[in-house]
Amino acid sequence: MKIYTKTGDDGNTGVQGNLRISKSHPRIIAYGTIDEANAALGIVLTNSLDRDIIDLLTKIQNELFLVGADLSNPNLNDMKNRVSLDMIQNLESLIDKFESELSPLTNFILPGGDIAAAQLHYVRTIVRRAETHVVQLSEKDEINSNCMIYLNRLSDLFFVVGRLINKRKGKDDILWKI
């Protein structure tokens, strides 16, 4: 099987249900940004990280595929939605768990410190942009609303894990100063 199909040469692409839509459609922009976040997360995983962080980020990569699959589904009635409230609650539990290892924030912080933490902060901004695109899509088409909530929690988790990586590697948070 060849990687190129030539079916998208006219500016359209396929989504679930054998439908074809423009590559500039908000649905494609939304799950394309999810794909970008997943690729950037792969870069973070090339760093030397603790096993629990590697396992977590790898799990999230797989979950991002589920988010993309849900977003590529224009027919919510076919029961193929995968992003669940359990996934969201798991992110919340992880945020609480990791925050317990950190000192409370008293200032805004800047992305930076260890390279992996800085890269994870970058992924966080991609996830925020993806969330914005998903909101835009939801204003045009019906979607699995759990996708928006999941992305919102995921960006929070990446913020916390970025701080955690810095702490575990002996790096201080970089405080915002004016």
UniProtKB/TrEMBL annotation:
Keyword Transferase: yes
Pfam entry (one): Cob_adeno_trans
Domain Cobalamin adenosyltransferase-like: 3-164
GO cellular-component term (any): cytoplasm
First-listed, main subcellular location of the protein, grouped into a coarse class: cytoplasm
UniProtKB keywords: ATP-binding, Cytoplasm, Nucleotide-binding, Transferase
Subcellular location: Cytoplasm
GO molecular function terms attached to this record: ATP binding; corrinoid adenosyltransferase activity
InterPro entries noted in UniProt: CblAdoTrfase-like (IPR016030), CblAdoTrfase-like_sf (IPR036451), PduO-typ (IPR029499)
Alphabetized PANTHER family for the sequence: CORRINOID ADENOSYLTRANSFERASE (PTHR12213), CORRINOID ADENOSYLTRANSFERASE MMAB (PTHR12213:SF0)
Name used for this protein in its record: ATP:cob(I)alamin adenosyltransferase
